[in-house]
């Protein structure tokens, strides 16, 4: 439990961002006409951050089930790259926490935080530490969503600056975690992924440009990941 508690402590930066963003989602879903129980169920079982806002927007716009599911899958396909990048750190076989449980808590912010710290955590307790980080983030997201549902009605007529501030929290959280991630990821990989995405934007949809950009960055990062993995084993 000591290492789970350490993970919870290390998740505080994510918690500080997830509470207001989760609150914003609860508020947005209520304004879009979703029932309180449906709003909470989306955060509990889908738990996909920005994809939940897209889901609410598509549902409120009357989009079909197929188009909605396809859009959500395309947005979240980046986890096909997140999973292997994190799984390489879980080499210990005596830990009881299954990878499927850990995978459910793998969000963008958890990935960024874990990638920057995982090499510093002893391999025998990494799953427990990661579980603590993911649990802190998940709890904060559900708490924020619940508060958004409960207080949404009273803040409907709130000041414009409050709504704009809440909507800015998610981009600010991404930037802060990106700075932390740059400690462990080659700058050339990040720049390459960004350039590929920018070059493709005029020719394809945003989600495809981002997907191909991440794939290009991941491909360029394979040599450095193997080198880091060999260093950890030694």
Written overview of the protein:
Belongs to the AzlC family. It is a multi-pass membrane protein. By secondary structure, the protein is an all-alpha fold. It folds into two domains: 2-184, no CATH class; 185-234, no CATH class. It contains twelve helices and no strands. Helix 2 runs antiparallel to helix 3, helix 2 packs antiparallel against helix 10 and helix 11 (187-200) packs antiparallel against helix 12 (206-233). The longest helix is centred in the last third of the chain and has 28 residues, at 206-233. The relative contact order is 0.16. The model is unreliable at 228-234 (pLDDT under 50).
Q: Give me the strand/helix succession.
A: HHHHHHHHHHHH
Note the overall shape. Answer: globular
Return the domain count: 2
Q: What's the overall average pLDDT, rounded?
A: 79
| E-strand count | 0
Q: Helical proportion? A: over 70%
